[in-house]
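Quick one - inputs below.
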Amino acid sequence: MLSSSPTSFAHPFLSSSPPLSPLSPQSRAARISPPLVSASCSYTCAEDSPRLHQIPRRLSTATASLYEILEVPHGATSQDIKSAYRRLARICHPDVAGTDRTNSVSSADEFMKIHAAYCTLSDPEKRSVYDRRMLRRSRPLTVGTSGLGSYVGRNWETDQCW
Amino acid sequence: MAEQEYTVASDSENTGEEKSSSSPPPSLPEIAVGIDIGTSQCSIAVWNGSQVNILRNTRNQKLIKSFVTFKDEVPSGGVTNQLSHDQEMLTGASIFNMKRLIGRVDTDPVVHAAKNLPFMVQTLDIGVRPFIAALVNNAWRSTTPEEVLAIFLVELRLMAETSLKRAVRNVVLTVPVSFSRFQLTRIERACAMAGLHVLRLMPEPTAIALLYAQQQQMTSHDNMGSGSERLAVIFNMGAGYCDVAVTATAGGVSQIKSLAGNAIGGEDILQNMMRHIAPQPQEASSSSTAALRVATQDAIHKLSSEDNAQIEVGDKISKVLDRSEFEEVNEEVFKECERLVTQCLRDARVEGCDIDDVIMVGGCSCIPRVREVVKKVCKKDEVYGGVNALEGAVRGAALEGAVTSGIHDPFGSLDLLTIQATALAVGVRGNGNRFVTVIPRNTMVPARKDLFFTTVNDGQKEALVVVYEGEGGESVEENHLLGYFKIVGIPEAGRGVPEINVCMDIDASNALRVFAAVLMPGCSSPVVPVVEVRMPTVDDGHGWCAQALNAKFGSALDLVTLQRKM
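Output:
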């Protein structure tokens, strides 16, 4: 199968702050902050591999809001959000973004982020909660669903240039 | 064909690497073929550069009966072997219904139902694989479902290679929704034995979803991306399994919202009818049973279009069956179909009135009562007519084969994607004998989720991570055991102090990896190296493993979910 090469061992547990499950919004934000620094680096180093040229260089998710991840304006309609999600899926889903190990891992991570953003923004209730939280904070939040803690944490490892 | 080409790698061999005779030049991506291995019929198809082409055997058949006969020195399967009449498959020399037997242990009710078949299915009811044998020259010759499937797949591969004039190695196969990961490894094993490399194992209705996405995209090419989403229910019922999916489709992207499935199908209907017609049990491999099976099958087919059917078997049985009688006898089967569709709609959080299309495929979708039930639940008067009931799955698999092989179509016919969802939940044993879900059913794939656990005993230095998969039943017994491993080196501490993080990762090719790390309060990195285990690790689906672990360790190495104060 395509995955499981021992050289690309990556573990999901190095996220720093207290691991909580389920996480309160505050702790979630705190937990993801350290990995974000390296998250942006992944795109630059992953771009060395030829297949990834097909994936347009996307916004670094380090500072991106969910709207920026989906590449839609804040006032986007739910129809816009659905279209944007599908358009990005056609580019970033591991099935289309490449089949070798390196890219399938990074595109899987990328796609999970897009999907998480979509899950929040396509649900009117979750979206309004998110919008309110964004207004209250100076810094936009990136994470919308539970279970993402380890996923972001894992990026911290996968995203190193090995 | 040369004789030695029929040989199959031994069952203990895990990879088909050395078996592939010639690989394609590395510059050209090999287009993976799509295979629909049905309980009763198989087909194989490939993207030919502009459309999907279903391959035919030398007798010009697109749908090939799934069976292998062990009559002579060399076993022969349905691809090359022409039966003069249907009863010839029922002498005990042929093994069929492999898909209902593969990866199941001898306590499984589906295996027990197979004991009515003419070949030998022997069970000791202790949770090991059943003993399966074919009658050859009045002797029982043992085999395994994997071996039978591999022999059949080799024939299919050779047929495809002859037809395509190239080596065939990469395949996309369709599988039932209800298959456990252990069963999927057995399918992969059979493929490896036949020299095939599995790119994807697609739940059957998701293959149909991809085909539907392509059709929708073709009919509405101009408004692509406008987001006009169509909700479809896909109902697929063949001889062995019934599967349902709800999918949202727009712009060539089909997102699977929910999946449901069970091992119920035409074989159950057939056995119900045989019992109804001839209640007294008969020798399974006798010629009268074979004649009854063939006659009943014919009558069931006839009842799909007519109100009654005549059954004559020898001079003993002469009966007219009418459709209402047929429906009464199989009431339970139809109820289960209804339950699966209802559950799938509920899991997708959609109402029947939201559904745009109902797609029905598989042999049993021709049964009027099945159509009625599905249409009723989905509140639809019509069934979508664009998908061929018997060819849809293999066409979808061939499309997926082209998409995952990285083939680009200049006309955009391959700008397709199925976003898969998990058919079964995965989790670990914790909180006593409970199944603690880590990744729930119907989670988008790729997926990654984690949970925190802690120890149950003071000074507990080791913990057992026992991984299960299932529909999410509360106790572990209701789920399939996938494997287990031990975490060692937990620092000595009171119970409830160490934090054990269990993370599960399912990648786009559906491979499941489980990570476990030990964390201590106030320390941000794991105190011992993280353990990564590819699941499943159980190698024969041994039903006794869980009991053995219990006998050996009791609750000494147990885990409970970590309750934290906010």
